[in-house]
Q: What sequence folds into this?
């Protein structure tokens, strides 16, 4: 059971850390000041949430959070590929934020009922914070998804680009049945079903057309350490200062 | 001599939120439990936001305040009783307003984030206000604009 639980915690922690890092790349670069602040704040939330999840893993016998965050190679990370993709233009970052955070908010909502009490307590906390992230995403998707032909076509293009990777969020773990039987987590399929309902309901309020998921081939592999060429450079940059002096006191 | 729970809280009243120096950690609601055994004091704290960067600093300040009284503190950070803005005391809310930060609206009426669309201006008490961004200069604040007094202001986020 511990393997199943650890696998779940690792993928969630790694998702939060890597997307947190990508969000932080908008600091000083946002298209307007409020968006600069928003992506920076969400970065801070997500990195903080990853720390709390790594701390749970540490209590289960894994290394300390800094060692886990800064010394693993790309093939040891369990994040989905969606979160490691470069930010590209703002429209892509926004679509990714919408697709990922909707799933993440639902994941933590489900985990508030987890039989693993420390995770249920943390989920209760994080769930409230993520409401601000989904509020932010939904507001902008609704606004820019109905604004001008350019904003709509940019978002539509990014939506089609991101969707196969977004389906990779729900790549099943080898422990699905075990997690469900133990009441730890409801499973990736149940999560994806709920996610689709939410995504559809927001898209319907815009001029965006959600492609039929039956014809979209999911990009998988992230959960088992098979990543795109973009993850290792991100990790190299993220851990650069740490590696100069791993024993430094901050 | 052994301190009572009330006396420990009195000491902790002096420890302020480093980002909002008018608000004590007790009024902020982040001190969730105090257990005393002779001169040993166990303080349980919980962050306002999981990613709050001031947590380590606040833990240190709590330890310092108790050590100054000759006590042996141990601070534990836990999510057993997660923080919500409902835990800010009435005294704390008044201090926030005086400081120029709109206090969070009560959770009881906070069922949907639509509540965020308007806030009461802490300067002129105007209600003709507009949410500019749910994210502000710290994780726990949002940005607003007041159309009555034409000033920007911040609100402590309801959570």
A:
């Amino acid at each position: 059971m511990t393997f199943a639980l650890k696998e779940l915690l690792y993928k969630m922690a790694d998702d939060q850390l890597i997307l947190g890092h990508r969000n932080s790349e908008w600091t000083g670069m946002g298209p307007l000041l409020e968006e600069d602040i928003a992506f920076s704040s969400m970065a801070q939330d997500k990195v903080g949430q990853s720390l709390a999840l790594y701390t749970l893993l540490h209590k289960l016998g894994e290394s300390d959070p800094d060692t886990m965050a800064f010394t693993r190679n790309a093939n040891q990370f369990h994040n989905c590929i969606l979160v490691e993709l470069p930010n590209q233009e703002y429209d892509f970052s926004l679509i990714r934020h919408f697709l990922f955070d909707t799933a993440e908010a639902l994941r933590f909502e489900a985990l508030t009922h987890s039989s693993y009490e420390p995770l249920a307590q943390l989920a209760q906390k994080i769930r409230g914070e993520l409401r601000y992230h989904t509020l932010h995403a939904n507001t902008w998707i609704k606004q820019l998804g109905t604004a001008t032909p350019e904003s709509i076509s940019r978002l539509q293009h990014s939506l089609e680009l991101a969707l196969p990777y977004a389906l990779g969020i729900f790549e099943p773990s080898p422990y699905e049945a075990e997690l469900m039987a133990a009441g730890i987590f409801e499973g990736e399929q149940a999560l994806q079903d709920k996610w689709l309902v939410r995504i559809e309901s927001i898209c319907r309020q815009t001029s965006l057309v959600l492609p039929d998921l039956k014809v979209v081939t999911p990009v998988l592999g992230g959960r088992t350490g098979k990543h795109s060429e973009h993850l290792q450079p991100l990790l190299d940059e993220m851990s650069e200062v740490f590696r100069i002096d791993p024993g430094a006191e901050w | 001599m052994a301190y009572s729970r009330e006396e420990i809280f009195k000491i902790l009243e002096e420890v302020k939120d480093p980002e909002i120096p008018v608000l004590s950690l007790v009024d902020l609601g982040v001190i969730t439990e105090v257990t005393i055994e002779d001169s040993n004091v166990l303080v349980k704290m919980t962050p306002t936001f999981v990613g709050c960067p001031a947590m380590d600093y606040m833990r240190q300040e709590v330890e310092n305040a108790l050590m100054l009284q000759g006590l042996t503190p141990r601070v534990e950070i836990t999510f057993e009783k997660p923080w919500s803005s409902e835990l800010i005391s009435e005294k704390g809310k008044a201090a926030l307003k005086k400081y120029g930060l709109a206090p969070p609206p009560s959770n009881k009426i906070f069922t949907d984030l639509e509540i965020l669309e308007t806030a009461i201006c802490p300067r002129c008490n105007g209600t003709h206000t507009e949410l500019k961004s749910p994210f502000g200069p710290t994780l726990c604040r949002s940005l607003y604009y007041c159309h009555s007094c034409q000033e920007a202001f911040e609100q402590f986020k309801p959570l």
About this structure: Residues 90-156 of chain B form one domain. Chain B touches chain A at residues 49-53, 79-80, 82-84, 113, 116, 132-137, 139, 143, 157, 159 (CB under 8 Å).
